[in-house]
Every structure is written in C-alpha cells, then in structure tokens.
Protein 1
Amino acid sequence: MKITNQRRTFLSAGVFSLASLVALSAHLPAAEKSPKQAVPVEAATSAFEPTIYDIESTNFDADFSPGESTTNTPAELDEIYAPNDGYLDSYGVNRPLDLLIAPLDSLYEKTGLRIGVANTMLFMQPIGGQSSRYGAAGDLDLMSSWTLIGRGTKDTGRFVFTGEYRYQMGSQPPSRIGGQMGTIVAPTGTFNDRGWVIRDAYWIQRLFDARVRIIIGRADPSDYVGSHWLQNVNNSFINRNFSANPAVPFPGHGPMLGISLRPTDQFYITAGASNAYSNTIRAEFDTLFNEWDIFSFAEAGYTPTFKGLGEGRYAFGIWHMDARSKFSLPEDYGFTFIVDQNLTKNLQVFARYSYSDGTLTNVRQSGQIGLGLSGLLGRKDDLTGAAFALSVPRSEASRNETVLEVFHRFQVSQNTQLSVGLQLIANPGNAPDNDTAGVFYARLRASF
C-alpha cells in the first residue's frame, strides 16, 4: 500500500502524541480516590446494578474501553437492567413487563446469557427553514450478550449478537429532514427506514485481570473511539453533532479487530482496524480479502478522579481511511480531542474538537460542548441536557453552521422513558437564503 508523505507525517505525529500521553501518565501522581467505591468488572454486566454510564456511578472499566459510546450492546443492556425510579411505578405499570423480565434475569444468572429488547420511537417537527414536513420512525433493537468463559472473574469471554429493525411511521422518517432543511449536519440520522439488519456479531475477550481487551467480529468502530459520555441517540442528544462524530467517515458494521490496553487505572490506549467498505445493511467479505482497504484508528486517554469533582476522561485519537479504489474515493485522515468530566454526582460536562482532511465528509472541523444534569425536577433518573456545536464545512460554497440542542428525559416507569427536545440551527450550511431553522422532537423508549 502506497504511503504518501502527507499520510506519513500525520501518522508520525499521531504516534508521537500517543507516546507522549503514555509518558505523561507514567509521571502523573496517582489520582485521588473517590469515597464512592469503583464498580467491579462483573458488576458492570450483571442484572439490577446501576448502569455503568449513570452520572452518579461512572465506571471506567466499561465493556471494551473507557472511550466507547453508550450505544454498544453491553452498555445498552446495562441501561435496560438498571434499577430506575419512574413517575408511574407506584401505580403498578411495571407488572406486565416484570413477567418477562424475571425469566430473562433468571436465564442470565443460570447461563450467563443476557437478552434485552428496546423500541425507540421519534417524532420530529421542523420549525422554519426550508422544510415543514414532520418525520416519524422507530428503532427496534434485539440484543444479547453471552458470557461463555470466566463468569465471576475479571477475564471473561463473551459473544455479543444484535439485530435491529428501523421503520418509518407516516409520510417520511426524521432522517430525511436534514436534507430538506439544508443543514450540513443532520438533526438526526439514526431514525430512518432501512428495515432489518444484523448489527453486531463479535467476541470480546479480557486477559491479564482485564488489563487487555480484544474484540473481533462484526462491529462498528464508531462505538469504540471518538465519542463522549452523552453520545447516545436513544436516551440523550439526537443531533448528529452530539449523537455521532460528523467529522469522521466511519464505515458501518462489518469485520473489525480491536485491542484496548489498561496499563494503569488512570490510562488506556485503544487501537484497531475495520474493513473500509463495511456497510451495515450487507456483509462485505469479498472486499476484505480482495481490496485490502481499511479504516484504522487509535485513541489514548487519561481517566483521573479529582477530589471534590469526580471521574474525568481526557483523550486524543487519530484515524485514517485508505483510498477505496472500488468506489474511486480518496484517502482521508483526522484527529479528535475529547474531554468528559463529572463536576458533581449529578452534573457532567463534555467538550470535543474533531478535524478531518475533509475529502469524505461535509465537515472539515467540528466542535461541541455540552452538559447533562440529573434530578433537575427532583427525580434522580430524569436527565436534562444542553449542548452547542459549530461545524466548519468542507465546501467553500457552504456556511459555518451552529446548533443548540436542549432536551429533558422523563423516567416514566422502570422501563419507559419520554424525552422532549428542541434544536435551534443558525446559518444552515447549505441553505443560504435561511438564517435560522429548528426542530421540535419527542422520543419514547420502552425496553425490557
């Protein structure tokens, strides 16, 4: 594979930066211990424990890497099985689902097989701009995680398998609204009408007291690098500035190999590669062996616990997409800086900056900052979010685009959440005749 001078310079700078982070972590003093005890590795994947991404009990051990997003299957299952305090729980609304949940929990305790189902529906109504047509769609997830090796120990081996069905409700799905509004970054992209797909089918192995994690199989690299703690379209922000990383041309679900190392409790490094032609709606095995074009990535992070604040994560990642001759697409590369920090047990903030060479995405530079606050209305499992984004486009014909999103998520019952939100978009990048646009949305999620 030919390596250009530009690519060689970029990779050299990336390796140097990652090495610097390793050296820095070796000389930093040990982080202050929080009065709250860390959640054990197995507790993060056992029934009826707090979710590992609950603001009150962030667990850096996670599934594969502290840099992973909460949309990966084990994290979604943790969220489903976490105990939640809903507004309607005292009225017995959970009893029908309890009849389903109890056998599934018993199955997990006996066999290590954990199964979960979640259905998320989104209604989105444009406000101003070039579009006035509403969009509505649903996302049905069938998830499983089977611990076959090392149950009750740190060094587990698990097989993860998920299927997903996305369906349209009404005249169009919300995923089409961004194009109609002329935005550079879509108000949402997940809620479309692509039908049934197999999302994940991978094995994850932990070794050496979970200091080494290896993942191999069909997976999505965007679940494991370049994300922040509140990056979950199912229960947090839905604009792609915050629910994805719009400056990175991630391939879809497909063949992937990754490794994550945890040399100390305060440092991690993750690296891997995926088939550059991966497409979630079909299997891409021929291109893996015939074309040899890959999407490669690496991320290193420092995860301290600051006295008086809480857990934090400070990460730097790089990526490279090979030129894909089959589609006549050029190579591309970029990097991302990420900051996640708990300020109190209820308040969490994040910031992210991403740069790409700009040959494969609409965005050359992307910056976001935001927060999540639990308990604003007196219910600990409610979540309020606010975030701001600036996108610098690849094309000189487009404008810089800014987005503000706010939402509130109500924990209606143990297994049901209702979110309402608003996005305000200034200077939609591809709509020069409109200075402002926006969308209102409502999202309902039920799971067991």
Protein 2
Amino acid sequence: MIDLHTHTNCSDGTDTPAQLVNKALAEGLSVLAITDHDTTSGWQAAQLALRAELSLVLGAEISCLTTNGVSVHMLGLLFDGENLQMQNMLENTRDGRIPRAHKMIELLNAGGIDITMEDVESVKPAGATLGRPHIADALVKNGVVSSRDEAFTDLLHNNSPFYVAHMAPTPEDAVSTIRNAGGVAVIAHPFASHRGEVLSAHDFLPLKNAGLNGIEVNHRDHSNEERNALADIARELDLVITGASDYHGTGKLNSLGENHTHQAEWERLESEADQRRVIRA
C-alpha cells in the first residue's frame, strides 16, 4: 500500500515520526509520505526510524489561499529540503499561524467560550506547527467539547464565525515553488465541501499550467460523486490520481492506508520529480 498524506506531532498529528514509521510497517505499507503542515522538521527522525522494506517519501502540506479567499492545501513531495525558496515559504506560512490563532481565541472569548493561548500551547507538542487542531485540543481539555471532531463541526470549520484565514501563498505560487525545488505537487482533498468553500472544476487548469502534477481523489472527505468528478478532471488534464489517508493519529478517525495510491500512478508521480529522492533503509 502507498499512502502519500500523513501527519506527525511535528504539526497536528499525535504520533512522533518514529511511531508513524512503526505503524506504517505494522500495517504493511510499502510507501509512506510524511507531509506535516508547513514544516519539514519531522524528516530526520523519520529517516532514522526507517527500516525493512518501507520506502519513505519526504514532503509537506502547504496551507494556501486563493485570491478570493478559498482555503486550499497543497502536498509537496520529493522536493529538495534545503531549497531556500521552499523553506522561506514554509516559514512564512508557519509565522502567519500565530496571529491567526490569537485572533480566533479572541473571537471565541467574545462568543463566551473560555480558552487562552496558554491553553493552546499546553496541548501543542514542543516545536509543532500551530494549527486549528491544537485549538480544538484545548477546547477538549477545557471541557467545551468532547473531541477534535466536535470542535471542528461546531466551532472551527471554515464557515464558522470564529474562523480566521491566515497569510498564505496562492495555490499557483505553492505549486511553482514546489516544482522549482525539484518536487511534485498534488492538491489535497480539493472537493471536501464539508470543510467549507471549495474549488470549482475550472480552477484546475491554472494549477495544471503552474505545474500541478496530481489530484488527491480518494480521500475520506470526498463522496463517491466528488471522487468521480475529480477523477474525470484528472484524466482530462492528464494529472496523476492519488489516494491517501490524511492520517493524524488519535486526532482524527482516519486510518493509515484507508485510501491509497495505485503503483502505476505513484511511479509516474515519482518520475516527475527532478531527482529520485525516495528514502530506503
């Protein structure tokens, strides 16, 4: 099985990179991509834990905003981790998450919900990229909600009065930066409508023109109808079709390998990077 979208506690997952590698081995995965939000800080630990027949794909999930404010997530895989332009983009996006969190906390407080930045920091692993899931964890800790899922359903979704966008590159800029760093770009869960406003079918051609390599079609947040529509778009634009778990550990229901990428699609995707960067034990 090939799973190209997972998270560790270097962003908003609950497993360390080593624990994630161990679970991937236990589940029989052949290829695992680590794609923490806006950071590559888990790469080294994952490589140190790698063994047996598992192949490791290093990447990141970049938080983007379209010019009209639609939130988009772009998976960058197999890029040069030392590329300065890429690291600057990741750093700038991480930095934008801090004032965003403060503003969301202010809005929650104004809505009568008791939470502080200290509460959020107390549940965030040291060094992890700050995100809404950490606000959700603080709400759980404070007894406001019973789970992360409930926090997102009731309070933190994209259409919530407590939601705040943050500074982020456009999807086209993210794709261009990933490609300039030698990697491949796959748009993550682009039709997950329950998360908020999503792209329309005509938005994919500009991304293709910017260098987009693939579309994450098979994802638990896509209905069968949405999967079919995305697969049609991918075939029309000659883009790779991927599937992935978007695994977050205990933070979400997603299970490793619950959606996966077919071998032929993965081989094509890997070949479109400027170098062979898959890590093997």
Protein 3
Amino acid sequence: MERLHTDAAPPTVAPQAIGHLTRLFAMSPDLLAAAGFDGLLKHFNDAWEHQLGWSREELETRPYLEIVHPEDRADTEREIARLAAGETVTEYVCRVLCADGSLRWMAWSGGPGDEAFYIVGRDVSDRLAMEHELAQRAERLQDTNAELQDFAYTASHDLSEPLRMVASFLSLLDRRSAEQLDEAGRDYLRQALDGAGRMRHLIDDLLLYSRVANEEPRREQVDLNALVAEVLQVLGPSIAAERATIDVGRLPTLEAEPVQLAQLLQNLIGNAVKFHGADRPPTVRVTARRTIGGGVLTVADDGIGIADADQERIFAMFTRLHGHDRFAGTGIGLAICRRIAERHGGRIYVESSVGRGSAFHVLLPDAPAVPGTPRQV
C-alpha cells in the first residue's frame, strides 16, 4: 500500500506543494488516515505504527474497527455512518487497542470524501486521566468543605450556650461585685467581658456564614429602596455615633434572597461607616443599576481605603487589616458578603485607594434559566 498517492493530485497543484504535503503527512504526530467505507485503512502515516504498536502490514489488512475497544465499536460505527452521510465529526473519543494489549483514549475528527473519509486522531489519554483526577479532587474538596461547614455550624451552635452562661455570670459579677475589686481586678473583669463579647460576635458570624453557605437563596423581586431603609434603621445607632452621612440613590428592584441581601448590605454599609479617618465623619453612597440579566449594587465611601495588595484577601475568612483596639470586628463580614454574592451566581469586588475611600461592587444576576447554572452579569 502506498503511503500517500501524489500522482493523482490535480494538475494545478505544484509538485513542490505536493512534496510539502507528503512530508507533513509523514511527520505529523497525530494519526492521519484516509479510511475506506469497506472497513480498511487506505492511506495512513507512520504515527499509527509508532503510537499503537501495530505493524504497517497489520494496519493495512486488519479492519480498523477491530482495533477499537469492543464496548466502543457501536458508537464508532454510528460516527462512521455520519461521515458516510456527508457530515463532519469533531472530537469523537473512543478507546483504541494497542499491539501490547494496552488501551489508549483517542479523540477523532473526520470529514467525508468520495470513496473514503478522512480522519485525524490524537491521543488524549493523559488529558482525560488528568481531568478525571481533577474531578476527583474537586469532589473530595467539595466534601471536605461541606464537612467543615457542618463542623463550623455545630461547633458554633454548641459553643453559644456555654458562652452565654459565661457572659451572663461576668455581667452579674460586674454589677454586684465590681466595686469590691481593686483597679487591676476591675480591669481584668472588663477584659473578660470584652473577650466574651467578641467571642459572641464571632460565633454569631460563623453561624451566619454556615447558613449562607448551606442554604440555597430563595429569590424574589426585592425593592432595594425599602430594603436599604430597613438596613439603615438597624444601623441607626452606629450611624449616629459616627455622625455619618448616608446618601442613597434611586434604587431599582433586583431579583435576590431578601434576608441574605439585607445581610450583605448591612455588612457593607456598616464597614463603610466604621472604617473612616479621624479628620472627618464618614460619607457613604449606596447606588444600584439594572443591567442585562441582573443588576450591580455599589456601596462607596470616603474612608481610609484599602491597599492594592489587600483588596483580594479581605474577602477571606478571619482577615483583619487592623487591630481590635482601632476597629472592632471578627474578620468574617466580607467573607459572608462574597458567599452571598456567589450563592446568587454573582461576585463582589472592590475598587479602592488608600486614604481616598473604597467602592464595593456586587454583581447579582437574575435567576438562571436552568437551575444550578450561574449566569454572568
């Protein structure tokens, strides 16, 4: 069998071009062939011998379906029928038997011809093995994350009651016996009360994060004007204490889970009120706009700002850029915001300059047409 006929080429093709094609055919690392509808390979390059181990004589005389794994032959015959009908085949994957008894996964692309069809095969065994390993790792990671979330919820829930008892007795001791202590004792008591309070906030935030991570958002049309008004009422004491100015633009209706969206807004506006410089009271602006398939919610401030190197890591759990003596907090709030955005199929990011303020943008797509399929805004 000739490896490639060149004498039948159209007379308009220059001999030099034919020589190039012949060399490319021979040197290609992919399996190239013209396969007949009678079940035999008509022309094929050396890659068939090198990669599969079959001799040229065996490949010339053995029906090519015999080197396809028996479980894949029916599907392969259907793909060949498509080629016979004049269709093109792209990325059909099947197992091929090698001469040494091993199996290789090959991805085939093919096009029809008059007396044969033309195919290109590429070994994708390593790629598929890597994809399988990555899928297994992703599944294990998902299971581990679920276990960690369950652990966080259980541990936080179980810690709440004993902590409540400790805080209650500390408060009782402060009210009844603080005057009997010296200055050092009263200072120890204040530190214990402060530590119990921080622990309570931490546990509450962990429970909130666990609920957000495990509960699928129940979406509905949310009037942002009404929702922001409710959030500002909750934050009223903090806003008054910091003498903050909250500028709320005309807000649209978005499709979201109202409780989770309120939690997100409370964290973002609360942070904007809290993280301001000492030279002036904070000014916070809340805006939102509809986009194709969703909306963008923005909370901007004129506060202390965030360095470029910290603008991604602030969304990680327990990340704090400042000490408790300057700004209170658990380092979980922005992680909750990111989780809420992701559970809605969206994302959150920040634009900021140190000393000039920050703007947090939340992209919230509408509910996807197919459940579980995120849509990008």
